What we know:
The chain has 342 residues and is mainly beta. Helix content is 7%, strand content 49%. It has helices at residues 2-10, 12-15, 84-87, 131-136, and strands spanning 25-40, 55-68, 74-82, 107-117, 120-126, 170-174, 181-188, 200-208, 212-221, 235-245, 249-261, 266-279, 282-291, 302-314, 317-326, 333-341. Strands 1-2-3-4-5-6-7-8-9-10-11-12-13-14-15-16 form a 16-stranded antiparallel β-barrel.
Amino acid sequence: MKQTLTTLTGACVLVLSTQAIADTKPPQVYGTISARVVDFSDTNFIGQDVDSTPTLYEGIVGLKGLHILQNGMKLAYRFEADFAPIAEADGSESKYYGATSTEDPIFIRYAGAALITQYGLFAFGDAMSGVYSEFYAPVDVFEVNTQDSTPTGAPNGSRMWTQTKWSKDGLVYKTPVWNHMFAKVVYASIGNESGEADDLKIIHGVYKDKAFMFGVNLSVYDKTLAGAANGEDDRKRWVVASHYNWDSFSLAGVYEKNIALGSAGADFDVKAVTGTYTNGAFSASASWQNRETPSAGALTEDTAKLAKVSYQLDPMMELWLEAGKYSESDNDNIGVGTKVKF
Length: 342
């Protein structure tokens, strides 16, 4: 699954093992320029009327590298920013649901560093938790109906599940990999208004080899975090995920259980399954995603059926066509686009 492999490769600063690396890798500059045309049946994912105007939805520039310290430890670092929100002055065209041209003119996707030692990986920075890349990315392989969002403790946009793709201000420790297994703990802050330096705590365990992955994650949001918890109980999110890769087919699934979400303290489950078939430069993906009716609050039940086909004209250029149908919301859509990488 090329899309998934690309996403997972992009998170390499989080999953590098402690095995020996021969030489320091000099800083590498990379980027993505993506354009699309999307037609929505009613409104877009943030409830606004939009026309089918060609849109630049990714203008990414990044820098990453690996340095061998004098004592033999490795230092990996990465910075990545998306300039598309400032290029598209209309905030409704931003794929980071909730972002606007005035509040988020440039979206910082990654900013962090990791020290790799024989005792494990120690990391700090934004988008360093690895929860999305390890658990959700193999399911979320789409361009229009993706789960991109600004970092927040509350759901927004059309996200079926509540896990954000990009996180804020994290300290991370990952154990050395043993028999394909590792654990990771995250100490983070996503809202200064909470008055707590550790308003988000995460722990997960993962088994992963070349073909199979299984993991369990628990994220706990402090009850003082406005919008995430109800002020009386800590909000919790349990996640179980698994994926398996064959030669030309991959299957991925994720189950998310939310407890005491938001001011209403809503409880609900989310399930998703995605399959992808790849044959040379051609790939096709289909996904079923379901959110049950929350016990309280404004969120509603919804089911998404998504499909995407893509063709790799060149290692640097991809064409894609995608459609999404939602059972309850008015976000049905069809889109076409291209992605250029350098």
